[in-house]
């Protein structure tokens, strides 16, 4: 049987009761025994490969610790299987079978391509997940992700008794911008607002686009007075959109309703209070901030 696998794609080695290699096929010798005498015991093989910079990768631990751990695992059960990373970058799936006479049969398969494919699939999954959570135009979190984030932040605020403040914002006269300058101008205004928020908000804050021209800002661990200071800085001057090539040159403002979480708040109730304040700000002539009374 071993002769039939001598030149196959598997890595095969047979160790006797003293852990000395009694047989190794070409693939195994090329990977682990290029400059090694034959027969050689398992521990000596590992030390020699480590000194030569070949064979198994031991990671951040020293070679003697690696050998000690490997010897503890070997022969501790009739069969085991695990991934073995090589210094040259290949990854093997290795099985160890303890035979009735005490000899140990090791068979490995190269799974490098499979692991690379898994990495590609994981990356594609991550890209797709991010896309599902992101507004295509502004590159901000979208409504679904924004409200999910708010729900988690609200739950944490209740559990840890920490402050949480949110604001709902609406770009003023957005329909007029689209009608007067075109939908391209409206898109430019949305992107300008998103860029301004990214520049002004802290890393711990989150802003999401939750409607056509409506946004939510979430300030975890932040009481009303500090969130209001940030919002006023953002609100202080009209935002300017200028694009010479597209002949765009206009400014716009926004209105906001801000609310701090109460102990009894649900996701719906805090959004309702912020929305009522936003409505009041717009009713007062726009370009205004209204603070929820709680």
Automatic annotation (TrEMBL):
Domain GGDEF residues, every copy: 162-294
Recorded catalytic activity of this chain's protein: 2 GTP = 3',3'-c-di-GMP + 2 diphosphate
EC number: 2.7.7.65
Enzyme class: transferase
GO MF terms, alphabetically ordered: diguanylate cyclase activity
Annotated SUPFAM superfamilies: Nucleotide cyclase
One Pfam family of this chain: GGDEF
Domain of life: Bacteria
Protein's name according to its UniProt entry: diguanylate cyclase
UniProt source species: Pandoraea thiooxydans
Taxonomic placement: Bacteria, Pseudomonadati, Pseudomonadota, Betaproteobacteria, Burkholderiales
